[in-house]
Amino acid sequence: MAGRGRPSRATVYARLDRALQELNGRLGGLPSPTEAQDIWSDIWHLEAHHSTALEGNTLVLREVQALLDQGRAVGSKSLREYNEVKGYGDAAKWVYGQALEPDAWDGRLVSLSELRFIHHTAMTPVWDVAPHPDATDREGPGNFREHDIHPFAEGMTPPSWPLVPGQIQDWIDDVCDLGKKIEAGHELDHPLPEELARIHNVFERIHPFIDGNGRTGRLTLNLILVRLGYPPIIVLKRQREVYLSAMRRADGGDCGSLGELIARAMEDNLNRFIVPNVAGPARLVPLAALADRDFSMAALRQAAQRGRLKAVQGSDGVWRSSRKWVEAYRASKHRPAATRKSSAGPS
């Protein structure tokens, strides 16, 4: 059951579905990197920061930005930490670019060579300065492990290493089958976010590499998402315990919590980065995409309901306005009270 003031899981899924329909139906889908470099740069910085922080990296966001944008190692962190972020940033940049402007993409959501490439790109810089102490020469970046993994503290035991190639091929086939179902409009066995949660969890349970499975799994999930026309996700470092708890529940077959986390992350990136930038000044978008430091979504909705912000409520119950109308409302808020009263005419 949802807590007081917190929407139910079904509501979160329905809200995401409407937002995706709006993005792909009315707003023309995801922008390409060349069309909206700033959007992808912002997501790139945050994803590299938070995804490596989930694994213990201590670089703060401004250090990540300086490293990725200027190649400068700001601060006094270890070379290993800088190289972790550099490798992740390079892999994420490839994920976004390859997904949106593909070179000879064959239509599959992911291939074995792409999975290996993502791991190789993400892990090579850190491996160059701090290789895994137990790795053999055949277990470097891009190569599957040839060690068995001890059971995790939570109880999950990855498969014995000889089983990894076959299980990863089955996983890739499963992901590609899911893509075909979605493209054909077929009904899925479970809500979309929970299908995404399932494939993410299965990858992590296979644990195909000796190191870097969490980073590679999140990067590969984002490749899948963007190729489906959906926004990539960022699991925030403050969500680490929630994320790990959801993964443990998914280990036991319950993908609901992880699906909800993924759905919220997709919607957050939509509203925070993508929709406000792809919508023109006069285009109507949900209020969530227009909220900023001055006006929260609740404040905009209240203004719309009171007729102070020009907005329309659709048949789906969602209030929509435009950047142009919000700017007009902002300007009216900043005018002196006497001016606002006189411009309103006689009472």
Write a concise synopsis of the structure shown:
The chain is an all-alpha fold and 347 residues long. It has helices spanning 9-25, 37-53, 61-70, 79-100, 112-129, 164-184, 192-206, 213-227, 240-251, 256-278, 297-305, 323-334, 337-343; strands at 285-286, 312-313, 319-321. The chain has a 3-stranded antiparallel beta sheet.
Please provide a written account of the structure.
Pfam families: Fic (PF02661). Residues 110-267 form the Fido domain. The chain is mainly alpha-helical. It has helices at 9-25, 37-53, 61-70, 79-100, 112-129, 164-184, 192-206, 213-227, 240-251, 256-278, 297-305, 323-334, 337-343, and strands at residues 285-286, 312-313, 319-321. It has a three-stranded antiparallel beta sheet. Helix 1 packs parallel to helix 10, helix 2 (37-53) packs across helix 4 and helix 9 (240-251) packs across helix 10. It is globular, with a radius of gyration of 22 Å.
